[in-house]
# Entry
Amino acid sequence: MSMNTLEGGEVLITPRRTVGESDINIFAGLVGDFTPVHMDEVFAQATPFGGRIAHGTLTMSTAIGLLTQTGRLGENVIGLLALNWDFAKPVMIGDTIHAKVTIAERRPTRKPGRDVVVFAFEVMNQKNAVIQLGRMTVLMRAE
Amino acid sequence: MSMNTLEGGEVLITPRRTVGESDINIFAGLVGDFTPVHMDEVFAQATPFGGRIAHGTLTMSTAIGLLTQTGRLGENVIGLLALNWDFAKPVMIGDTIHAKVTIAERRPTRKPGRDVVVFAFEVMNQKNAVIQLGRMTVLMRAE
Amino acid sequence: MSMNTLEGGEVLITPRRTVGESDINIFAGLVGDFTPVHMDEVFAQATPFGGRIAHGTLTMSTAIGLLTQTGRLGENVIGLLALNWDFAKPVMIGDTIHAKVTIAERRPTRKPGRDVVVFAFEVMNQKNAVIQLGRMTVLMRAE
Amino acid sequence: MSMNTLEGGEVLITPRRTVGESDINIFAGLVGDFTPVHMDEVFAQATPFGGRIAHGTLTMSTAIGLLTQTGRLGENVIGLLALNWDFAKPVMIGDTIHAKVTIAERRPTRKPGRDVVVFAFEVMNQKNAVIQLGRMTVLMRAE
Amino acid sequence: MSMNTLEGGEVLITPRRTVGESDINIFAGLVGDFTPVHMDEVFAQATPFGGRIAHGTLTMSTAIGLLTQTGRLGENVIGLLALNWDFAKPVMIGDTIHAKVTIAERRPTRKPGRDVVVFAFEVMNQKNAVIQLGRMTVLMRAE
Amino acid sequence: MSMNTLEGGEVLITPRRTVGESDINIFAGLVGDFTPVHMDEVFAQATPFGGRIAHGTLTMSTAIGLLTQTGRLGENVIGLLALNWDFAKPVMIGDTIHAKVTIAERRPTRKPGRDVVVFAFEVMNQKNAVIQLGRMTVLMRAE
# Structure
């Protein structure tokens, strides 16, 4: 086990990222999701949000990306097993998000050299309001 | 209730989308996730996959996007509440995916005019192998 | 003929899309058109428009894309035959466009199972000012 | 009138551009047009084209972009007035296109200092097959 | 030698380009550089810059791109040999840049038909403040 | 000084990145550089390279991006001061690059708390051939 192994209980604070209009538009095009609350300012201003919001899947994927930027996963990731995610608040254009990620669990699999690691995410905006809570289960090499 | 309302038990078959190398690279950049199995062909060829694979979150988000392209959600979407998703098989560069989506549940909320709708996804590749199974819970207008 | 066949005289109202700075910049790069009125704010502020405007071909292509989002064309499109388009007003950064599309004509071709369909577009901004008028001629499957 | 003024009868040969899968995917997302013949390799292989083709509007817009790359329009463009375009052949992934553009007409407008210039395009692929024929009418400064 | 050959001492003024938030975000993703001063508005506001700035390499690459848009290099470029570049001031979101480029040197190589050309760049913003000074050495065909 | 401070003599090996056609096309559009050797397969096949190559500035910027992915710079970067870079070999579509980066120098500035750090890059492809050699000078916080 290397000094750098992610162990149960460890907490990682990710870098932050500001979500811009272009991120929403590019994501919409990439995944083909043009739901009006993301793409139509006239519609969005008439909702309780008062403006366009980011796709929840964009924010979730960005939070996971920010975790990878800590440099603690890298070549040890074998594959994603599961996501269980709750969406509490919207991300507006210009919001800056980051995540506090706790290693909720690390357990060996039957196959030697492979562990299941569960990451518990709290995704927050620039006001430290929690916008998403989720768990990501990943198959990783046992180091 | 309009003729077009999504009712429990209804099944939707989405259009298909071919996932290219550019989709993976753009997604990686957009969400900041450069995990080697997605971005490094030398690394990926040495894994059991034998080549780069799409981020699971890209495929999941694309499946949701394909659902929106059926034209059955649109302005009725208020917000995403939860995702619970299992990832079974990888998507390789050049694979073509689509989803079979069942309306697993539709129930009113305490607030009149708002329903919770649960969509059960089976995401498949061009060989009809199931690559992901997931549930998306959305708050929608009761039509 | 399916219930869903587009018939002469039918009118479709597309979803709306807000055109952002990023849409203009990405389009410019994609098609290689860096005409100053689109890319150079210093130049554009000195024109009668008072700021950068979208490429006419971006707005036209977006209006066609919005038509496809109605879910009424899809797999029945065989190919684009002709575009005849007039550009009346500019689209500024932040404008929200949509189109009213009338099926101006549907006629069989000599080859059985193939129709020519003419779509007449009125493209409008968020003030309902008509910014473009055009006709798109498409070869489609006779359903 | 500068030495560089575009005069009726002049012929411009544009640079060439290879159209890749990413260009098609990015264009689809940007303008929101996911018609299956562009995005679904399974569908496209069953068509007479035998594979995905570029959106006609992407090729047309690219041909116009290639014209701007000759450096002969630039700050003299005031606005696009009209496009009249016929689509004869598809552009497949990997094709390289360019255009032969003839200044079909240059006439003054009633407003001094402004000319209407008509560009007649022949868009060709790497086999010199004509894929599109079109006319672009532009309002330009009289130099 | 054609009339159009770039000769030592000649000065080229490039077109201008406005750098938007989307350019910075897309560049960050493309090259995988998420340094906080570019991507994190909360962090950037606390720096002396008072906001996010463009990657120096984006501005440098854009200045080189603007030079190519003068239409004077094109098919004569064989390859880039060297860049020597100093970064003096930041480019903020919304700044408009251009370059004054002097042909500092043109010398034949031992291999006939090939010249080394040195371009000296002054990159300026919309206030004509010099933001970068650099030299680009390129191998070009002797025309 | 933290344990994590970059010291003169330290060597960092970056992750790898495969450069695809889409990376070249997006970079070309982003910086507006459509030099034929990058964008025109017909032209490029007739050069000694035998096909399209990546812009040298894309590869250089990607190498710098890969360095940031080691997680050793982050919030300590104040600004880029200089780049001095030699380009030895081309990067073809599909090549996988990485860099070996040596901290060539770290010296304090007159302003307390700020150091100048010089990073010496060797950029290599998947065959371990050196394609670029460069030095990047950065202003960083003294930790």
Notes: Chain B touches chain A through 42 residues (CB under 8 Å). The two ends of chain B are 5 Å apart (CA to CA). The CA atoms of residues 122 and 133 of chain B lie 5 Å apart.
